[in-house]
């Protein structure tokens, strides 16, 4: 500054040189010049004191102006950053701008930003400005490691004047090597916050010792807030773009499937119309066949591959089996059948759902039919209960009630006692199983023009006996049918045929008792899940039968031998009787019959061909001997007449 510019002003104008210095934004050192000049010129002490006071005031004004300019620059930088954020297109570009402006405003050698990696549990360098070290730019800091790791862990700003001499944070070889490569000494770090969560750290650093002021820390924190907002905005934009892309794909799917949805709506309308006008399951199958352009059939569960049917029932979806699609028709855990789409291996999701919905409608139709049938079944059960308890003795009334149920009490019937062989330990589960058994038995009785009722923890059925059928045949078929329907073994005991039940209703109770005895015998013999009648138990069947059918037992046991003797005039029966009387010894039998031993052998060989190769086993031999004695009692004049067999006492008749 020249002396001309620093001429002392008149009294009262001591502030003039300082106003000029403020106006041209002179350096701090220039403000000492007016005071020094006044002292050199020997000005009065009062004048020098006034100049000192004016200098201090001018420096305060200068500092205030400089602070305001600095804040204006900071606000301008923050505004520009916010503007960049508002027009965010490239997150990396925005973060680089933030780091560069922070470095410029704080006047540091380096500024950088790190982000947390939740998957690896550490923080890594994302953007740097002023960095020259590749190792530093690739640093990863564990939580709590280094100054940055400490900021990321505690969510608080940290500053160090001399990084390597600061013991507040954990030093690691990797981090220290990177900081040393970069030559950093003083470091300021502030957290990037999204709500209560730290997502990274923003740093400003110098390669010399430096004290960062509170305002500088606040400014860096403001940039950190903008950086966090930029990251959050970028994430939201990414999610929005992803959502928009998803919506576009959804719109494409909707456009592509519009025809299919219309077809599904058509199916719904058709199925609703079918239900309202009382259509059946086969009508549903026909309607779905038209919509799916294929062949859909309703089939019984037994006619469908078990594995695919069980998978469909368990998952509630149509399952592929070969080139077919199978949808289980179920209700309350009970398998009612299946809808099978033939020859359609490739089926889109909407068409598959159409098939599954048709299976649901089919189950509802079957349940509705069953509800109506159950009312009829209760009536059938009441009639059978009356027959079992002999409540009604009026044959005309019994016939009328049976006729309304399409049952003919004049026909030959068999009474069947059925029960589950694997009762559940759960009371509710056992009750449910019994209800399913009764329902299946009632359905069978209705289709066979018979009657069914629940009784004694099981079910009793009265079924007509078809031509050529035996009680055993009916019992075994019924056991298989009921077992398949309830998915667990069912044992069935059958009575001998009964007739004219309207005139003799008491015969039903006696036949039921016989069926129960056969049922118990099957259980004792370990034949669970089987069906049998008294005639299947040999001579034990005489004890099980309600009325001992001695001729029937004799016919089943030795009938072929009796018929052979009657046709041929042979003596096989007499030889057989003597053979057992002689302890099954051919030699002793020869002596008793006074024939050659070869004759005995030939006759016994003929007996074996007539009765079966196992006729001499202990069980069969016992039955044959009993049948011989009963036959001799019925036809005494045809006994063997000689030897021990001729003098044995008659076998007592069973009661």
What's a quick, concise take on this entry?
This protein has helices at residues 16-23, 33-40, 45-86, 91-106, 134-137, 146-154, 173-182, 214-276, 281-292, 306-315, 349-389, 395-404, 427-447, 471-486, 506-524, 540-544, 550-568, 572-581, 586-593, 597-611, 618-634, 643-647; strands spanning 110-117, 122-129, 140-142, 158-160, 186-194, 197-206, 295-299, 319-321, 324-331, 334-342, 413-420, 451-455, 458-464, 490-494, 531-533. By secondary structure, it is an alpha+beta fold.
Which helices and strands appear, and what pairs or packs with what?
Blueprint (H helix, E strand, L loop, with lengths): L15 H8 L9 H8 L4 H42 L4 H16 L3 E8 L4 E8 L4 H4 L2 E3 L3 H9 L3 E3 L12 H10 L3 E9 L2 E10 L7 H63 L4 H12 L2 E5 L6 H10 L3 E3 L2 E8 L2 E9 L6 H41 L5 H10 L8 E8 L6 H21 L3 E5 L2 E7 L6 H16 L3 E5 L11 H19 L6 E3 L6 H5 L5 H19 L3 H10 L4 H8 L3 H15 L6 H17 L8 H5 L8
Helix pairs in contact: 2-3, 3-4, 3-8, 4-8, 8-9, 8-11, 9-11, 11-13, 13-14, 17-21, 18-19, 19-20
């Amino acid at each position: 500054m020249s002396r001309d510019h620093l001429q002392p002003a008149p009294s009262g104008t001591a502030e003039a040189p300082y106003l000029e210095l403020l106006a041209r934004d002179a350096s701090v050192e220039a403000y000492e010049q007016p005071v020094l000049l006044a002292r050199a010129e020997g000005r009065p002490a009062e004048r020098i004191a006034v100049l000192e006071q004016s200098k201090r005031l001018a420096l305060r004004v200068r500092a205030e102006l400089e602070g305001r300019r600095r804040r204006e620059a900071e606000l301008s930088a923050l505004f520009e950053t916010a503007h960049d954020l508002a027009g965010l297109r490239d997150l990396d570009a925005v973060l680089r701008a933030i780091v560069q402006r922070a470095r410029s405003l704080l006047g540091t050698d380096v500024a950088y930003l790190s982000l947390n990696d939740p998957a690896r549990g550490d923080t890594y360098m994302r953007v740097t400005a002023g960095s020259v070290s590749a190792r530093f730019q690739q640093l990863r800091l564990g939580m709590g490691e280094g100054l940055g790791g400490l900021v990321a862990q505690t969510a608080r700003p940290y500053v160090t004047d001399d990084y390597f001499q600061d013991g507040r944070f954990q030093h690691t070889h990797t981090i220290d090597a990177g900081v040393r490569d970069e030559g950093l000494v003083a470091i300021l770090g502030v957290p990037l916050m999204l709500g209560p969560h730290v997502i990274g750290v923003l740093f400003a650093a110098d390669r010399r010792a430096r004290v960062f002021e509170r305002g500088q820390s606040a400014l860096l924190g403001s940039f950190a807030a903008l950086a966090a907002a930029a990251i959050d905005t970028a994430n939201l934009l990414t999610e929005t773009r992803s959502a928009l892309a998803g919506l576009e794909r959804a719109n494409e799917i909707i456009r592509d499937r519009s025809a299919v949805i219309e077809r599904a709506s058509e199916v719904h309308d058709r199925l609703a119309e079918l239900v309202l006008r009382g259509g059946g399951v086969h009508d549903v199958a026909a309607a779905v066949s038209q919509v799916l352009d294929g062949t859909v059939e309703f089939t019984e569960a037994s006619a469908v591959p078990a594995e695919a049917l069980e998978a469909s029932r368990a998952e509630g979806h149509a399952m592929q089996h070969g080139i077919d699609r199978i949808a289980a028709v179920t209700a309350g855990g009970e398998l009612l059948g299946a809808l099978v789409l033939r020859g359609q291996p490739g089926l889109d999701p909407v068409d598959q759902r159409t098939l599954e919905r048709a299976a649901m409608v089919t189950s509802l139709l079957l349940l509705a039919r069953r509800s109506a049938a159950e009312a009829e079944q209760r009536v059938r059960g009441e009639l059978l209960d009356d027959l079992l308890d002999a409540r009604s003795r009026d044959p005309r009334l019994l016939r009328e009630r049976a006729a309304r149920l399409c049952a003919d009490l004049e026909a030959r019937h068999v009474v069947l006692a059925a029960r589950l062989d694997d009762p559940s330990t759960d009371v509710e589960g056992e009750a449910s199983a019994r209800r399913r058994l009764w329902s299946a038995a009632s359905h069978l009785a209705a289709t066979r023009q018979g009657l069914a009722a629940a009784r004694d923890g099981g079910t009793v059925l009265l079924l007509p006996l078809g031509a050529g059928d035996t009680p055993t045949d009916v019992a075994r078929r019924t056991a298989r049918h009921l077992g398949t329907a309830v998915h667990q073994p069912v044992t069935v005991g059958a009575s001998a045929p009964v007739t004219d039940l309207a005139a003799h209703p008491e015969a039903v109770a006696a036949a039921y008792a016989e069926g129960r005895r056969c049922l118990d015998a099957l259980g004792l013999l370990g034949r669970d899940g089987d069906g049998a009648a008294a005639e299947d138990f040999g001579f034990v069947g005489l004890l099980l039968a309600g009325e001992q059918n001695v001729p029937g037992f004799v016919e089943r046991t030795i009938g072929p031998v009796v018929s052979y003797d009657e046709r041929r005039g042979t003596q096989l029966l007499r030889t057989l009787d003597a053979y057992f009387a002689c302890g099954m010894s051919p030699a002793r039998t020869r002596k008793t019959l006074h024939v050659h031993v070869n004759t005995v052998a030939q006759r016994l060989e003929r007996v074996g061909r007539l009765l079966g190769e196992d006729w001499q086993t202990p069980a069969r031999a016992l039955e044959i001997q009993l049948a011989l004695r009963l036959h001799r009692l019925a036809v005494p004049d045809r006994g063997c007449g000689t030897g021990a067999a001729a003098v044995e006492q008659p076998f007592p008749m069973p009661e």
